[in-house]
């Protein structure tokens, strides 16, 4: 459905951040990109949505295609019209607007009031908590509610593909589970396609069908979620985080394993 | 007591007319974060245009209204496109300096293009003062105040209730995210400036009929700053309340203090209030606060 073919992204004309990334996002499923801080996950999503260009970023190589249509170089507001919605890292709700006004803004490209009304109703059925908070200024919502609002706002444009950037960031585990379950339901019931960026591998691989591991602007590993889940490198990589508290690089893990093998 | 009512009644009407000018400033600030130091000169330009249509060309009043509206919309569109858009993303000081420069240019070019004499334009209303309870109101001011109220109401409705108004507030909140919602940010910037142009056109006509049309009309722009600081830079209700306060305070100062100290308090009294407001309520009475959550 959405495919990235060997794309290279440069910021400010000199800073090379993505060095040949290829990702295939399958229709009606969740695809995930995992990776540590600074790997280039957010940059990948911004390259797709066109937000990149407002940050002096540029795609210097490769192509991005949505159902065969080339997205490279298209402005963010035009990419949205083609059916892609981005949920930003850190939620980025319109703080001074109420929850419902955020949704109205999210439905900006819809042709009439009725489709906006329907969209709002749909969002409230998936996120009932937003209905209770509809008239509250969104800057004062809780982190979890803001994340729900950010997702709901993205749904308002009736997108084919939703780009979800670290929805678990800073939220309590219970809440994250709740939100992930809703995303899963959205994919099933609304035939949504999702590209999910996460640092939390266990959770992401729990709901995704296919996954990629990114490091230093490159894809270093890819496979079916189930396979990745049982991949010992990934396990070690993310266990490393939990036990020592410091994140090891996937490469380091591999390196370490190799050395270990060589030593023994 | 009658004297106080007279001053207050007059202050309310003048205050609402200040609110109209301040509204132009607020609209631009709300949507684009730009601070327009040339709002007074916009009003002057509109007044000069109406003056040359009515007095210069001898055309009827309503033609002047249409010409002033069209010219000011075109002018602010062009200004946004040619001067301000290239400054997008630059420090806010760049825009401030650009509008200060623009103000000086307009004040210089105004008499050059439209002539330096004072022309008088009159609203098509009588000049018999109207008695209303204890108040005695001038028809010109009354019409000016009603026009102000009408447009303050219309723009409030636009921002609160219309989809475009919500989109414009979204742009003001976060341009990048707004563009990801499919909102064409540049188009909304242009729209905000065009609305400021409309307000300036109306302001130019009502203030021009009250003061006479010449470069001095630009001085009403000086009252914009106390009004918006008191009310909040981005708040339409704030512009109304700020305008009322400035109008009433300067009239009371003119009526009670001027005879004692020999005059001039009217012009600085609003600024005393403004500085007090900056000290105690930096976001004004209605301005939006930076939201900080922990
Ligand atoms: N606008 C920018 N200009 C210059 N460099 C940037 C810009 N945005 C990101 N970068 C750099 O690109 C690299 C990748 O950043 P990116 O935000 O894509 O990482 P990420 O994988 O999303 O990380 P995180 O998990 O911390 O969100 C980082 O080294 C970052 O410093
Ligand atoms: Mg990121």
Write the topology of this structure:
The complex is a heterodimer of chains A (264) and B (294).
Chain A: E1 2-11, E2 15-25, E3 30-35, H1 41-49, E4 57-66, E5 69-70, H2 76-81, E6 84-87, H3 99-106, H4 113-126, H5 128-132, H6 143-155, E7 161-165, H7 173-190, E8 193-198, H8 201-207, E9 210-215, E10 218-224, H9 225-230, H10 232-244, H11 250-263
Parallel strand pairs in A: 3-8, 3-9, 6-7, 7-8
Antiparallel strand pairs in A: 1-2, 1-4, 4-5, 9-10
Helix pairs in contact in A: 3-6
Chain B: H1 2-32, H2 39-56, H3 61-84, H4 92-114, E1 130-132, E2 135-137, H5 139-161, H6 163-173, H7 175-180, H8 185-211, H9 224-231, H10 236-261, H11 265-280
Antiparallel strand pairs in B: 1-2
Helix pairs in contact in B: 1-5, 1-6, 1-8, 1-9, 1-10, 2-3, 2-4, 2-8, 3-8, 5-6, 5-8, 9-10, 9-11, 10-11
Which features would summarize this protein structure in a list?
heterodimer, A: 264 residues, Rossmann fold, 2 domains, six-stranded mixed β-sheet, four-stranded antiparallel β-sheet, 11 helices, 43% helix, 25% strand, disordered C terminus, B: 294 residues, mainly alpha, ABC transporter involved in vitamin B12 uptake, BtuC, two-stranded antiparallel sheet, binds magnesium ion
